[in-house]
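Internal tracking record. Fields below are filled automatically when a chain is submitted to the structure queue. Please do not edit lines marked as system-generated. If the sequence contains nonstandard residues, flag them in the REMARKS field before resubmitting.
Queue: standard
Priority: normal
Entity type: single polypeptide chain
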Amino acid sequence: MTLREDLHNTPYDAPVRCTDRSFLDRCPPRIAEIFRYWDGLRGDRRMPRRSDFDPARVVHHLPNILLVDVEGSDDRGWPVLRYRVVGTEECLLRGQDPTGRLVSDAYFGPSLESVMSTYGMVYREGSFLYELIEFMTDNGLWHSEFGLLMPFSEDGSSVSQILVYSQSSDFEADD
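SYSTEM-GENERATED OUTPUT FOLLOWS
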């Protein structure tokens, strides 16, 4: 089944997710490129350290990148997340720069629950996650994007930051 077929069999507010390398066969080339860079940084570790990541090596990707700090967890078990770096394309898409704000206050996605579920999976598992999501934005526009979330760890076991790469999709849903 292709990602497009998966999407047609999934409620529009539920993302299509992949947590193994099979997405590399069907994702946009830029997503595969940034994944391979991150994957090479981690080597035989579960997650690379943030200091392993050199933005100068992926300059052409920076407009689509977000770096999110993990500041602990709340009473629901959700990670407390704060936007540290937000690329220019992400700011344009959102109509604002959420740098420094909590993800729970400035998220861009179908719902707070959906966004926190996605981040929560990466936080709990310490592994990457690829997804395709579609949703109606606050200004009434339909948005479809591919997203790749990749964790960093300073101690080798707990997630300290999450690197997000997103790319708008050219997918057109059937009427």
